[in-house]
């Protein structure tokens, strides 16, 4: 037992106490493993983060069902936006003293008072936000408690209103319905999430494994020296295990620290509009335990696995033999199994989650194939390379002797690339299917602002705007629902004059008797055939009451499907007033089209709308609202994947740097000898550059090939032949990889200069 | 010649296509100093490695104190190296991460001795070899001569019966080489340890009781006439 203890102590001693060299080695592997741990902890916190958001969102959900003994609260949700920041506003009016109080505030605001979230309070307090302050001419009674606000960046206000809310909002009897709808994920979205997780997490494990193998040659020499003085092979394994355990534990501690420190900074960070509370970033407990156990186990087992061919003998470093030929069968078998799973998934229903898991498993195996095959590809390629300048030759000779370590680390980068390319292709292809937002309408000069509300509200806003901003052009419109005679299917019809239609839809020959539909119009809008007679519905109670048939609409004789169509209006049919019967002003949504608008005019209009009519709202055509939860999920998935990719690429860069620095450190003596014998430092630097660039170049080729093939297979399985490969994006990410190599090489230059000093030739 | 302690008989070993040992034999008696000489590439280091049980010959046997090394387990052979044998090589035998004191204490600690006792013993040996000032330095921080003395101290700390020295002064100047050899020989004689000394320098071989000449993988034993 004492001998075991001694062995472990020796291993720890070797890892930590060896002066600058071993401290440098320890720091490098600690940083590598630490970042991986932080990424894993963050990944394991995503579930709780989403749950916490849902819980807070559920707590603010209104309960419209009548509760005996509770006076209803009239509650009207509205909102505005300020320089791209969405602000939601709830106007509340209690009908009695037992009316429910929204969570996070001590009592209901009086008429003219408001409670705001910390984010909105900050926005309102900022200098230069007069336009925003003008929209909230209320007294701030207090701040909404953060535990009742979905996210730190959420700008929201509860405004105390008067009886005018009655009939416009909803009657609320409580908050926190507590019903969280756990709808099963759409298989396509699930597949996307699974693929993303695989693409992001596989490299993390590869980097952990690679980190424990840096300075392998030095470790072999050390262990050989131990064998010489009588350590048996089991002892050497224990010592090596203890040694790698130290960097794993240090990495674990560093990673946990990094995670905790990053967590504290999370509140101030907004990534693509999403912010989180530090308290929400809590890993799932069993995943955290798994990470704490898996990292040391992975580090130790990788170190042991790395030693399987290195029979550490007392003279292990005295005699070098030709590298053992790689066993390729299992590597090809892994990729083959992945492809087989993908092919097998073809026979399954793509509507089941099982299908998504099978495809994701297949894709995982194919992606794992990248680091498995890359060392072989690099080895075979450099074996046949001849000639070139001296720096190239030095690099190639070095790679011929040992390309394993660089290939392993680059393999991690290549997985990120392959995964990212596959994901990008799948996302781009799915974007076509989901009709996700495109670049349409992002030019403000092309955009129109639309004010929506009751006819009365719209009239007031129009009057206000013509007084306040006489230069803007205003056109009115109305909207109505029409119902098909043979069922419940309804179509939303916008009735607007020809000049506005021509401006918004970019047509030149609008005339009465025409109606316009989206080119991809599906049922029921697709059923609008000329001459068909449909019922016009009238909704009372501010558009929320039961529909009553008001009259009939005969579909005009000319149907036009247009290419140019604002995405936010894709479910509309548009026609002219003359082609539509008169509908009552009350209960019909009306609107104004104000265009064109620049961002500042838009803010003025918003302020005007807020001041003129608090129950009117404004939207821009370039803003696309996703009503379909799958679309929302799709957007959220894409956002998450992009954020995750950034972290993984950071890890890739760090690992490359670790590799390059370790390479210089381990080869100090040969580098110093080369420098002493007259090889210019520039040639040595270029040689180092090639040593990273060659594997990464080959890795990129492999990654692009596997990424595109994988995406093609997945999209074929998803039942679509639409494969969109964004070559510009592929080129960009490839350039980013090249940039990463150059940056890493640049950072290593001072270390290379240090290593090539003649004093480096003196070693023990 | 004294009673053989270590006997190598008909040893054969090839590296790739070339035969490093081609039926070499040698014996070492207790307390005897044997110099193994020969030109570069003759197989003298391989012979030493085979005799020490750190390289297994393809054929032939090495018997130490009645035990055949090739039939011993790795664990037993390692224990033998730790307790009965000591090693002084030209390069690389010291662990650069450990201090000189820790390097000397290493075989004792691998044998399960507590750190305190192991380092106490190591400090004593460093003193005997006149390098106690290097105790807390790492091998990279001391001179070549000091480093070899530390290596000698480490070879002797377990009280070995045989010390294997492969070109122990090869990297030293003549003065330092002389001092190291003198300390090695004197201390070995003091403790009764035998020495197998691989060298190509006649000056170093002159310390031995007997010479074994290795040429083309075959060994020829030569008795020294002092």
UniProtKB/TrEMBL annotation, chain A:
Transmembrane feature ranges: 23-43, 189-212, 245-265, 285-307, 328-348, 354-378, 409-434, 641-661, 692-715, 727-752
Signal sequence bounds: none
Localization: Cell membrane
Domain ABC3 transporter permease C-terminal residue range list: 197-301, 644-749
Keyword Transmembrane helix appears in the UniProt entry: yes
Protein topology in the membrane: Multi-pass membrane protein
Keyword Transmembrane: yes
Alphabetic keyword roster: Cell membrane, Membrane, Transmembrane, Transmembrane helix
Location, primary (coarse class): membrane
UniProt cross-references to PANTHER family, sorted A to Z: BLL1001 PROTEIN, MEMBRANE COMPONENT OF PREDICTED ABC SUPERFAMILY METABOLITE UPTAKE TRANSPORTER
Protein name: ABC transporter permease
């Amino acid at each position: 037992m004492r001998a075991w203890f001694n062995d472990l102590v020796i291993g720890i001693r070797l890892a930590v106490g060896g002066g600058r060299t071993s401290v440098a080695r320890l720091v490098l592997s600690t940083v590598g493993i630490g970042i991986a741990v932080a990424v894993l902890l963050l990944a394991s916190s995503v579930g709780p983060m989403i749950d916490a958001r849902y819980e807070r969102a559920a707590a603010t959900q209104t309960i419209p069902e009548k509760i005996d003994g509770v006076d209803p609260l009239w509650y009207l949700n509205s909102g505005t936006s300020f320089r791209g920041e969405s602000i939601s506003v709830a106007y509340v009016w209690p009908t009695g003293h037992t009316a429910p109080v929204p969570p996070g505030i001590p009592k209901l605001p009086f008429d003219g008072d408001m409670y705001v979230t910390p984010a909105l309070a900050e926005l309102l307090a900022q200098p230069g936000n007069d336009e925003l302050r003008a929209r909230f001419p209320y007294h701030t009674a207090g701040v909404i408690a953060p535990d009742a606000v979905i996210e730190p960046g959420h700008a929201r206000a509860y405004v105390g209103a008067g009886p005018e809310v009655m009939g416009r909002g909803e009657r609320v009897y409580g908050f926190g319905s507590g019903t969280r709808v756990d709808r099963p994920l759409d298989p396509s979205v699930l597949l996307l999430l699974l693929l993303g997780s695989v693409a992001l997490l596989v490299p993390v494990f590869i980097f952990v494994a690679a980190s424990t193998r840096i300075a392998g040659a030095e470790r072999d020499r050390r262990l050989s020296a131990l064998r010489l003085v009588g350590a048996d092979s089991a002892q050497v394994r224990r010592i090596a295990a203890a040694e790698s355990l130290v960097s794993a534990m240090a990495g674990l501690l560093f990673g946990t620290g990094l995670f905790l420190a990053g967590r504290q900074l999370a509140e101030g960070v907004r990534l693509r509009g999403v912010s989180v509370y530090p308290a929400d970033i809590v890993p799932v407990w069993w995943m955290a335990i798994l990470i704490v156990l898996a990292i040391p186990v992975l580090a130790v087992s990788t170190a042991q696995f790395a030693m399987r061919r290195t029979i550490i003998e007392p003279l292990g470093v005295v005699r070098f033999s030709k590298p053992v030929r790689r066993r390729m069968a299992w590597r090809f078998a892994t990729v083959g199994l992945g492809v087989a799973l993908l092919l097998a998934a073809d026979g399954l229903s793509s509507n089941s989650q099982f299908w998504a898991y099978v495809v994701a498993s297949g894709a995982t195996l194919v992606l794992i194939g990248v680091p498995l095959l890359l060392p072989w590809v690099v080895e075979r390629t450099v074996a046949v390379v001849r000639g070139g300048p001296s720096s190239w030759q030095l690099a190639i000779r070095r790679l011929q002797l040992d390309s394993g370590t660089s290939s392993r680390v680059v393999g991690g980068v290549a997985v990120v690339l392959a995964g990212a390319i596959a994901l990008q292709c799948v996302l781009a292809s799915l974007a076509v299917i989901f009709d996700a937002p495109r670049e349409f309408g992002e030019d403000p000069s092309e955009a129109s602002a639309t004010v929506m509300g009751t006819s009365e509200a719209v009239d007031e806003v129009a009057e206000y705007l013509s007084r306040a901003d006489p230069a803007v052009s205003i056109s009115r419109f109305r909207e109505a629902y029409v119902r098909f005679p043979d069922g419940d299917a309804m179509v939303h019809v916008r009735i607007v004059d020809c000049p506005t239609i021509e401006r918004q839809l970019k047509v030149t020959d609008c005339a009465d008797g025409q109606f316009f539909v989206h080119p991809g119009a599906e049922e029921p809008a697709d059923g609008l055939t000329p001459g068909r007679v449909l019922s016009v519905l009238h909704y009372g109670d501010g558009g929320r009451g039961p529909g009553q048939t008001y009259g009939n609409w005969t579909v005009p004789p000319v149907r036009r499907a247009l290419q140019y169509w604002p995405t936010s209006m894709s479910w509309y049919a548009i026609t002219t007033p003359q082609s539509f019967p008169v509908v009552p002003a009350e209960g019909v949504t009306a609107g104004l089209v104000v265009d064109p608008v620049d961002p500042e005019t838009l803010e003025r209009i918003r302020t005007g709308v807020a001041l003129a009519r608090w129950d009117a709202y404004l939207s821009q055509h370039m803003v696309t609202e996703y009503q379909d939860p799958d679309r929302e999920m799709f957007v959220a998935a894409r956002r998450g994947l992009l954020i995750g990719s950034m972290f993984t690429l950071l890890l890739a860069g760090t690992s490359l740097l670790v590799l390059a620095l370790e390479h210089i450190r381990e080869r100090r003596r040969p580098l110093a000898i080369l420098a002493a014998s007259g090889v210019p430092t520039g040639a040595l630097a270029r040689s180092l550059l090639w040593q990273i660039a060659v594997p990464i170049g080959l890795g990129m080729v492999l990654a692009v090939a596997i990424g595109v093939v994988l995406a093609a297979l997945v999209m074929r399985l998803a039942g679509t032949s639409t494969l969109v490969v964004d070559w510009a994006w592929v080129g960009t990410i490839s350039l980013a990889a090249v940039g990463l190599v150059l940056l890493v090489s640049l950072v290593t230059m001072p270390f290379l200069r240090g290593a090539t000093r003649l004093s480096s030739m003196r070693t023990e | 010649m004294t009673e053989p302690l270590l006997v190598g008989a008909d040893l054969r070993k090839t590296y790739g296509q070339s035969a490093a040992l081609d039926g070499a034999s040698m014996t070492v008696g207790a307390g005897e100093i044997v110099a193994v000489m020969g030109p570069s590439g003759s197989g003298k280091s391989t012979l030493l490695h085979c005799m020490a049980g750190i390289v297994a010959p393809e054929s032939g046997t090495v018997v130490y104190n009645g035990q055949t090394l090739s039939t011993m387990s790795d664990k037993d052979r390692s224990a033998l190296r730790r307790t009965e044998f000591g090693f002084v090589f030209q390069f690389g035998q010291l662990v650069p991460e450990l201090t000189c004191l820790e390097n000397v204490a290493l075989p004792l600690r691998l044998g399960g001795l507590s750190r305190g006792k192991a380092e106490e013993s190591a400090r004593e040996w460093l003193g005997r070899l006149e390098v106690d000032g290097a105790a807390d330095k790492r091998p990279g921080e001391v001179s070549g001569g000091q480093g070899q003395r530390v290596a000698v101290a480490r070879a002797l700390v377990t009280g070995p019966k045989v010390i294997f020295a492969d070109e122990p002064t090869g990297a030293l100047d003549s003065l330092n080489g002389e001092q190291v050899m003198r300390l090695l020989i004197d201390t070995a004689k003091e403790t009764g340890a035998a020495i197998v000394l691989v060298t190509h320098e006649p000056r170093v071989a002159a310390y031995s009781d007997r010479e074994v000449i290795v040429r083309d993988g075959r060994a020829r034993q030569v008795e020294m006439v002092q």
